[in-house]
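Backbones bend. Shown next:

***
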Amino acid sequence: MQITVQLPDDLAQRPDPARAALEAFVIEGYRSGALSAYQTRTLLGFETRYELDGFLKAHGVWERAYSVADLEKDAEAFERTA
């Protein structure tokens, strides 16, 4: 399947805007859990998990990062038991 995205001229002037859009898409998909590590790796064209790990690290994406929502759930659980 091919997806077409129309970019404003200023964004289209950046180096390799198609790759930048793909990377943004897969980063958010991975962060949200919509894409697995395998799907993310495949979409980016990486052959190994090592390559994917380097990419994710370079973009500040940490697997199973502790989120604000996680903190709020933990705080609520603590309040119920205290």
In short: The helical segments are 9-12, 17-32, 37-44, 49-58, 68-81.
